[in-house]
Amino acid sequence: MPDTAIQIKDLFQELKTEWKVKSRYMSNTAQIATVWEYQQIIGMGRPALPLILKELEQETDHWFWALEAISGDDPVPPDHVGDVEKMAKTWIEWGKQKGII
Amino acid sequence: MDARSFPRLTKDNHRITSPRDVGDNCIAWAAEVTDRWWEPGKFWPVVVSRHENGIGALEEAFKSLGYVECPDGVHEIGFVKVAIYGSALEYTHAARQSPNGEWTSKLGKMNDIAHDTPDDVAGGIYGEVVEFMKRPAKSTSAH
């Protein structure tokens, strides 16, 4: 596993790119979340949180499973569940409140 | 569309009908919802665990919307049909029949397409059609 912040960022970018290609036609969230590269990102643990949240700011995508798995939190209120844009905004705000981004 | 994911799609049997949209998925689209991503245990029409990703979970979802199992995807006037796709025991996709008899699919996080038959999007990433379901079409006439 990488040691430095730069190595972690590079690895994240590599895994993210591959995951986006592999998951683009998937609709089953469990399948999306069990793509090997996504599992690798979850395995990076808390150092991946700012990278995921920054990525979420750039482009909305299904990072919620990973965010929940790594943080053990779920800040999305019930009326926003399923609304991908609102879920993304909620998580980004959560990251700011926690000082992660 | 890459041939590995969709080996049966040809330029003559489908057309893209929407831009890319990560906000809804094929299940929502088949259920005629365009502003939510449907996911068991999160946003789903029946109460299930988020770990229920089997074909049965999708079947129960469509049953809750008034669909019943039917033998095939042959066009029937007055009915809406959906095709459920699976790979192993997991659901992978759902397509809906349009009133004109052609089929419409939301391809994951990507585009909506119209396609001639349910089989056109099978054989690759979605596996095969495992079940057809139908419900009476909603009346569009004023009462």
Overview of this structure, please?
The complex is a heterodimer of chains A (101) and B (143). Chain A has one domain (3-97). In chain A, 64% of the residues lie in helices and 0% in strands. With 101 residues, chain A is mostly helical. Chain A has helices at 5-23, 29-33, 36-43, 48-58, 64-71, 84-97. In chain A, helix 1 (5-23) runs antiparallel to helix 3 and helix 3 (36-43) runs parallel beside helix 5 (64-71). Chain B has 143 residues and is mainly β. Chain B is built from two helices and seven strands. In chain B, strand 4 and strand 5 (103-106) form a beta hairpin. Chain B is globular, with a radius of gyration of 14 Å. Classes of the chains: A mainly alpha (101), B mainly beta (143).
**Cα Rg of chain A:** 13 Å
- Runs of chain B in which pLDDT lies below 50 for 5 or more consecutive residues are none
**Count of discrete alpha- or pi-helical segments spanning 4 or more residues of chain A:** 6
Overall mean pLDDT of chain A stands at 96
Name the shape of chain B in a single word: globular
Which sequence of SSEs, written as H and E, runs from N to C of chain A?
HHHHHH
Largest sheet of chain B: 7 strands, antiparallel
How would you summarize this macromolecular structure in one to three sentences?
The complex is a heterodimer of chains A (101) and B (143). Chain A is mainly alpha-helical. Chain A has 6 helices and no strands.
